[in-house]
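Person: Please comment on this record:
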Amino acid sequence: MNPAVAPPADVYIGLGANLGDPVATIRAALLSLAALPGTTLVATSSLYGSDPVDAQGPEFVNAVALVHTQLAPLELLAALQRVEAEAGRQRPYRNAPRTLDLDILLYGSELWHRAHLTLPHPRLHQRRFVLWPLSELAPQLVLPGLGPLQDWLPRVADQAVRRLPPEREAVRLPPASS
């Protein structure tokens, strides 16, 4: 199947894992994102630890990645779900612990609502484990339909999130080739 090609877009993807070896899973997922057709991995945030929100299980490891892609939103979603499945993701019930969770947080400045995808992600502004790494990558970002990202950080300051030590960092990108 040939992926749908869209005009190039900057897309922020949230990554989370709390089963198995979450750090290794996030690292492998970042490499998988870099290998998606028509997609370049531009930047990754630090890794963050957080307690599950509306879920059970061990601590989550979270990160945000910025990709530049030509995949249309639904094609990108399907590709991310394949990466999740390859990592052993199962969906036995809503908010179950998971080996890998990949969410499209922002797709350019799109405001979009379909049965399986809402952009921006409908809860991104309510989650410190999303906003903090997102602000690391793009502190001046304006969230479509929501306003400046920095305006939302104080509203989630009570949520326990911690930056993981540097030795547990995500994939470091090689220098861009010209």
In short: The longest helix spans residues 73-86. Strands lie at 5-17, 39-44, 48-50, 60-71, 101-107, 112-113, 118-119, 142-143, 147-148, 161-163.
